[in-house]
């Protein structure tokens, strides 16, 4: 068995043994693939955390937009989020738009984390309603760049290296 397949098998076996009967089956949701490069990426309005107003789709018209799914409890997100903050600080004046999408269970958890870390990038909590419009692809963190023309130009799952995040500035 390949190392990744073995790891997935071990994880699922361990979770199955620990979970009450039927819990995993009830919570299992289909894994969504990353959006395909070149596909249109429609946007909807989203209330922003930290009393930062609302993200409106028109704000992204003619601009590159980074969508970043993350969670306060995700160790890989904890490594990538400082790089996302650097990207935001260095590129927002040049036209970059960002919408970080927290998948925490409650918005208060996401807000507390953002405050503690001093992150200022626009972030929304993915409520059940918002999840219908911004479903999280498989993996975490997930980073998708929507080009100036409204189509996906880059889609990545898993932690990105600092140089990978910095290279997103090329889309601005």
Could you walk me through the main structural features you see in this protein, from its secondary elements to its overall organization?
The chain has 172 residues and is an alpha/beta fold. The chain folds into 2 domains: 1-30, no CATH class; 31-171, Glutaredoxin, CATH 3.40.30.10. 35% of the residues lie in helices and 17% in strands. The chain is built from 6 helices and 7 strands; from the N terminus they run ααβββαβαβαββα. It has a 5-stranded mixed sheet with strand order 5-4-3-6-7, with helices on one face.
Summarize the structure.
The protein is of the alpha/beta class and 172 residues long.
List keywords for this structure.
Glutaredoxin, two-stranded antiparallel sheet, 7 strands, alpha/beta, 172 residues, 35% helix, disordered N terminus, 5-stranded mixed beta sheet
Which segments are poorly predicted (pLDDT under 50) over 5 or more consecutive residues? Answer: 2-28
- Name given to the CATH architecture of the largest domain: 3-Layer(aba) Sandwich
Radius of gyration: 17 Å
The dominant shape is globular
In CATH terms, what is the fold-level topology of the largest domain? Glutaredoxin
Main sheet strand line-up? 5-4-3-6-7
Strands, total number: 7
- What is the highest CATH level, the class of the largest domain? Alpha Beta
What number of structural domains do the residues give?
2
What is the N-to-C succession of helices and strands? HHEEEHEHEHEEH
CATH superfamily of the largest domain: Glutaredoxin
Helical residues, percent: 25-40%
What is the average of the pLDDT values? 87
Determine the number of helices (DSSP H or I, runs of at least 4 residues).
6
**Oligomeric state as shown:** single chain
Terminal CA distance reads: 43 Å
Into which percentage range does the β-strand content fall?
A: 15-25%
Category from helices, strands and their pairing:
alpha/beta
Largest sheet, in brief, is: 5 strands, mixed
